[in-house]
Amino acid sequence: xxxxxxxxxxxxxxxxxxxxxxxxxxxxxxxxxxxxxxxxxxxxxxxxxxxxxxxxxxxxxxxxxxxxxxxxxxxxxxxxxxxxxxxxxxxxxxxxxxxxxxxxxxxxxxxxxxxxxxxxxxxxxxxxxxxxxxxxxxxxxxxxx
Length: 145
Description:
alpha+beta; 22% strand; six-stranded mixed β-sheet; Cytidine Deaminase, domain 2; 4 helices; 145 residues
């Protein structure tokens, strides 16, 4: 994983302009998350091959199983518009280091883009670049059915 915490002692690892756009969108939508129980707000920005970005934020529920994660929310928005060609995802949290997606979200993302590029970012500006296949090795897929 490419850890991008910038310090005065080391050269800065920089995000590309496209990555910055995705990260900014994820950080922005994170502010709209509904997380009264965990207080753990998450924002997700999912880019498709054509360049369009779909947003999602976590929406908690008193019946915890009914909670929707930000990543699955973004996937649902994209699929509802007929888009399934995901190329990159930014996930924004406040944790340090930035948090990866949960197991259920990894599985859902893997349905569409097993090698999806992912940027984990936090509100402090720290980021980590990774790929879904690194976060979900030996994933269960339609080929296993």
